[in-house]
Queue: 2 jobs
Job 1
Amino acid sequence: MNLTVTPHRFDKTVRVPASKSHTIRRLLVASFAEGVSVIDRPLDSLDTRSCLSVCRALGAEITEKADETGSLRWETRGMGGAKGFFSHRGTPCGVPLDVGNSGTSLFLAIAMASLGTEAVSFTGDEQIARRSAAPLLNALRGLGVEVSSGKNGCVPVTVRGPWRGGKVSMECPTSQYLSALLLAAPLAEAGVDTEVETPLLNEKPYIEMTLSYLDAQGVQYEKDAAFSRFAVRGGASYKPVSGAVSSDFSSAAFPACAAAVSGGQAVLQGLDPSDSQGDKAFFDMLREMGCLVEWEKAADGSMLLTVKGTGRLRGGLFDLNATPDMLPAAAVLAAFAEGETRLVNVAHARIKETDRIAVMAAELGKMGVDCEELPDGLVIRGGARPRGAVLDGHGDHRIVMALAVCALGAAAPVTITGAEAADVTYPGFSRLLFP
């Protein structure tokens, strides 16, 4: 699908979709729990549907209903651990489980599936087929799991437990490798302890999010202050998880950015300022670059986050190591900012759905923006109004959304190819962009 965006001022109140990271973690915990979990207002997107499909195939019973307000509800009867694999009607053992485009579902589910004694295979789309799980797979081998994979640790991947525990060292250019081990390790057999050393760890806030789930479950674990060593004791069982999923700061960044580059205003509903999501740091960046960013309480007691563009953005130096998913949106802000902006310490943005550093430099370059690639980021010299162009979304949801937002402040209409990719995390995103 091609999306053509005509420049205009963005002034909207937006109900931000639920968090993908929270939705997938809740689905997995609920699927391995004993009892029934009620997940209200989850993110209903291609990525989370992929995770839901995997959980059903493994044996979880998931029923879709509407709550009393008409919003989506997923009632999940868990398997009570890995012994329930394939015990219900679903995908037969041996048929590969398709994670679609969802890297989060792939990495986390691989580790969870490693707990069982059945062989479980995974596959995915063309982008997933290029995303290596090698560090995670090597760690699982060190923990006693039988593993096979395609070239460079890419799908097809097959794992077979049991998880025997031990001590492994694993570099984590993506935090998802470590989150996978942390979610699975408590469900290993009693007496099976898992110790993980992490000489490299990016995206620390996502590990804090994962640990918050272990804390809520009363799981026993140890970690050092530097997040370079973790020890988890097996023998736990997960309890049901219920409640509404909070809105996604990653998705909220795009309407906020739309207001910033167009001199408009975005009023964002559903966000929780106390949530563990690391991408809420993007709003500090917006403030530092010259936007007005303000929390206020609505009449119903919920919180509203308002972002106002002032018509003047300024460049700066920003370390995106903890928030690599924000690189596309940050690059767009930099294109409109006066002076030079350096987005650094984010080399792992190159191993997402696309090489987002190279892709953003190339696509913004088509609009006349002065971009320079660094090994670990971008230097953007902005201030001039980007010109209209035909741009390639590269099948990457965050690239599509960032380029569409950039179009709002451009000098002429912009067309983005492959715009349907936005549905991976933000269904209906394109409707936001029309007055």
Job 2
Amino acid sequence: MITGQVKWHNNLLFAVITGLNEIFFKKKYAKSVCKKIIDKNKKWGARDRDLFYNTIYECVRWYRKYIHCAGIKELESPEQLWLLLGTHIIMKKQLLPEIDKFSIINKRSIKKRESEIKNNRRINESIPDWLDEIGVKNFGEDIWNKEVKAFNQKSHLVIRCNNLKTDIRKLKIIFNTENIQYKIINSNPNALIINHNKKITNLKSYKAGYFEIQDLNSQEVGLSCSVRPGMTIIDACAGAGGKTMHLAELMKNKGYILALDPNKKKLIELRKRAKRNGVDIIKTYNTNKTESILKFKGKVDRVLIDAPCSGLGVIKRNPDTKLKMNPKILKKILNIQENLINYWSKFVKNNGEIIYSTCSILESENNNQIRNFLKKKNGKNFVIKNSKTYLSHLTGFDGFYIAQLKKCE
């Protein structure tokens, strides 16, 4: 947390307001907004960059609490973003800059409103009403209280060692030479928590393909696939290939992986990552043009469906999900997930498996989808081998769901 005598120069203040305007009024994603503005301000030092990034994310993370404490019901104009920013500065115990934009801010009123919401979870933890209602229904008050608090904690930066090019012992030595601080994770000897503010994608070790950035619970997805060298795998929702790379590594780069995604740019990035990782068993396909893979129906050892989802398990990493997700969008996502499981199940051979995963913790996206699939024609030959919801407050990492379904003869 950045507190105390923070130096807020005008350029930095206006950059934050520009970023918040892009996020709240132009509906842009915080990650891309921050990158664009930081790249534009080449003269900023590390402290300015960190202050900008942390302020943007904190204003998004605590949006509901901040506007309440500022005395605003809803943001209606970009000018009100100054109230949002000023409230953040005060609540982080920073010194409020003496500029006209902050002249109407009343520190005493902010503190008074803050004291009045201590027992109001929805406002105090900045959770939308609809999400809070579903969370309580899914988990009960006690567990949901803990999970909501975990939403607002800083996420860990976790890396996965690429054993195709090195091993964890050698990678630790390399990190020591690159002055990268790390923490060992006892539950996964192939992963490390990085405790450093450096942009690690600039490191020689990253460019050499020695590691990938991947949350610990995300790594459980690949491990749950129980793959072996020589298998034929479909990664039906590959994206830019984080989990695809993990599968290739676990297969010792022996076998065949069909990686599909409708986004051409993501598939290009996937191929770049494969080259960096020393992987040559992946062939990419556009999801909208699947005619060429119909010959694999009933012949695939594993189908990974890392399904499009609400992203509500990774709110700590992407707090603007709380602004962008709503019940109407969630309903559309549920239909997409249902169709994906039903379609790709046709490609699994006898004794093969579907691995269905989401970075959500909601029952509607997870256990309910699996139960519904097993009742359908295409699901009648499948049985649940294992399923698990990874909650952030229990694991300390991203929220995930993973189900393994085996096709019986």
